[in-house]
Design goal:
globular, 5% strand, 128 residues, mainly alpha, Rossmann fold
Length: 128
C-alpha cells in the first residue's frame, strides 16, 4: 500500500502501518520468503519487525484492513466491547495465506489487487 500511495504522489496524505492480530511472530523480522517476494518487486522491508495490534490502532486509524477471517475473529476477541466500524477485510474473500500454502506470489497478487481497490476507493471518497 505504501508503494502504491507513493507512486500516486500521495504519501503526505497517508499514514500506513502494519500490526499482527496474533502474538506468534511479535518481534520477529519479516519472514524470509516474504522478504524475497517483496525484493523481487523492488520493495524493502529492512528493519521491520512484527508488532501486536493495540486498542490505540483501533481508535487512531481510519481504516483497519484485515487479510482473512481469522484476523477478523482475533480482532473481535481482542476488542469485544469496541465499535469496529473502521475494520474490514482487504478483499471480499481471504487473502491467500502463504504460511500454509507456500505460494507467496498468490499472496502478493491478492495484496496488490486489494490495495489498488482500497486506494481507488479512498481517492474517490476524499477527492484525492
Amino acid at each position: 500500500m505504501k508503494d502504491l500511495v507513493k507512486r500516486e504522489g500521495l504519501s503526505d496524505q497517508f499514514e500506513i502501518s502494519s500490526a499482527a492480530t496474533s502474538a506468534e511472530e511479535i518481534g520477529n523480522p519479516v519472514y524470509p520468503p516474504a522478504r524475497r517476494i517483496l525484493a523481487e518487486h523492488g520493495l524493502s522491508c529492512s528493519g521491520k519487525t512484527a508488532r501486536q495490534m493495540t486498542r490505540r490502532d483501533l481508535v487512531y486509524y481510519d481504516y483497519i484492513i484485515l487479510m482473512d477471517s481469522n484476523n477478523m475473529r482475533n480482532v473481535r476477541w481482542m476488542f469485544p466491547n469496541e465499535e469496529l466500524g473502521n475494520v474490514r477485510m482487504l478483499l471480499p474473500r481471504n487473502v491467500a495465506d502463504p504460511w500454509y500454502t507456500g505460494n507467496f506470489e498468490a499472496t502478493w497478487s491478492d495484496c496488490v489487487e486489494g490495495c489498488t481497490l482500497l486506494l481507488e476507493e479512498i481517492k474517490e471518497k476524499y477527492g484525492l
